[in-house]
């Protein structure tokens, strides 16, 4: 707040612990993941100022970071993994704590139990970086293209101020914005590209379904007229359903109608098997966990779950995919929620719309292009 004084440390720079063997993760990386991990590790070791890791949805970005974080801890550096979404911090925190069991790790976001933020390895929302100045030797910014980081100038400012000098910044993204793509093309931003998912299967290519009555259906808080037919004819009817809608109002007001309809069609055993979640939902964390544990079969959500969350076996649909909130990056990310597990590496993605938008066409083109670049069709 403008009326509050902001203090920063002007004394001796703290000495952070030098860890000989900090990583307790014993998994294996694929050849492509290992190449990216080695490149990240080299950037940390050589104190390169910037590196962008462009990795498709489901490439296993978190695991690729482990060697680089290990290298930083061996060199006695302080690390922050920052991401625009609190949900992502909550999801990553137990994974990072498990992977670096002997290291002090803290997670910071609005409402987090941790408050002081004094650990050597910090996970935080990008808003929390406003609390730091010249604090981190290695700053990893996940999902740099995500809202609000790319839309709020104060957040890149905070990130730059939070970096020590010298320092290394690692950017992670599956859908780089145009300015980063231009920098890459001009060779002004070092990068590594990971075009393959960790299990080697292609990204699901979305199908577009034209629904002429879409506006009328949604005004009555009903699903698109052809939705039930698609659900009934899915290749794998045991997959959970993740449904994206453009507004909170639609998520809240449609859930009862949709639950009754799916119950009547024999798709749900109970109306309690369908819930809705959105950014201002106080039970948001709990609901996501219920869906992850498969205690809920259908989850209606806004774009808050477009990225950073992993569900092992889902089919994905978007109601009104032509809405302005679904830009190309959002549509690619939403499509990337399907087929994320080795046990179920495929998944259906369907865009219900009443007229194709440029964003929809570009998103499908981008996914097809990624699969070609990864050598999988």
Keywords for this structure?
377 residues, single chain, alpha/beta, 6-stranded parallel beta sheet, 11 helices
Description of the molecule:
- It contains 11 helices and 13 strands.
- By secondary structure, the chain is α/β, with parallel strands linked by helices.
- Helix 9 links the parallel strand 10 (274-277) and strand 11.
- The radius of gyration is 21 Å and the shape is globular.
Give the count of helical stretches.
Answer: 11
- For the residues shown, what is the average pLDDT? 94
**Cα-atom radius of gyration:** 21 Å
Range of helix content: 25-40%
Q: Poorly predicted ranges (pLDDT <50, ≥5 residues)?
A: none
The secondary structure category is alpha/beta
> How many beta-strand runs?
13
Shape: globular
From N to C, what is the helix and strand string?
HEHEHEEEHEHEEHHEHEHEEHEH
Distance between the termini: 51 Å
Q: How is the main sheet built?
A: 7 strands, parallel
Note the beta-strand portion.
15-25%
Report strand order across the widest sheet: 3-4-2-5-6-1-7
């Amino acid at each position: 707040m403008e009326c509050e004084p902001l203090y920063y440390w002007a004394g001796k720079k703290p000495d952070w612990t030098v860890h000989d063997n900090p990583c307790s993760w014993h998994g294996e990386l694929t050849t492509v993941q290992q190449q990216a991990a080695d490149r990240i590790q080299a950037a940390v070791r050589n104190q390169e100022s910037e590196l962008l890791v462009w990795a498709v949805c489901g490439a296993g970005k978190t695991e690729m970071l482990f060697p680089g974080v290990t290298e930083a801890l061996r060199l006695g550096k302080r690390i922050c993994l920052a991401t625009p979404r609190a949900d992502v911090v909550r999801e990553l925190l137990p994974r990072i704590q498990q992977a670096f069991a002997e290291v002090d790790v803290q997670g910071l976001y609005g409402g987090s139990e941790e408050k002081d933020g004094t650990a050597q390895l910090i996970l935080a929302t990008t808003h929390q970086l406003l609390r730091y100045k010249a604090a981190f030797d290695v700053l990893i910014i996940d999902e740099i293209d995500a809202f609000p980081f790319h839309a709020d100038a104060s957040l890149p400012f905070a990130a730059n101020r939070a970096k020590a000098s010298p320092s290394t910044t690692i950017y992670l993204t599956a859908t780089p914005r145009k300015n980063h793509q231009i920098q890459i093309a001009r060779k002004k931003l070092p990068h590594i590209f990971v075009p393959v998912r960790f299990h080697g299967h292609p990204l699901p290519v979305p199908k577009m379904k034209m629904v002429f009555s879409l506006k009328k259906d949604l005004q009555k808080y009903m699903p698109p007229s052809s939705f039930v037919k698609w659900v009934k004819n899915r290749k794998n009817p045991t997959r959970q359903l993740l449904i994206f809608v453009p507004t909170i109002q639609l998520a809240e007001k449609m859930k009862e109608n949709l639950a009754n309809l799916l119950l009547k069609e024999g798709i749900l055993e109970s109306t309690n098997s369908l819930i809705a979640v959105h950014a201002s939902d106080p039970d948001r964390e709990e609901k996501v966990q219920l869906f992850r544990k498969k205690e809920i079969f259908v989850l209606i959500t806004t774009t808050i779950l477009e990225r950073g969350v992993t569900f092992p076996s889902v089919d994905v649909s978007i109601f009104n995919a032509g809405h302005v909130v679904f830009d190309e990056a959002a549509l690619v990310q939403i499509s990337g929620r399907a087929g994320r597990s080795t046990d179920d590496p495929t998944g259906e993605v369907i865009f219900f719309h009443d007229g194709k938008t440029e964003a929809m066409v570009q998103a499908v083109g981008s996914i097809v292009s990624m699969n070609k670049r990864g050598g999988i069709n």
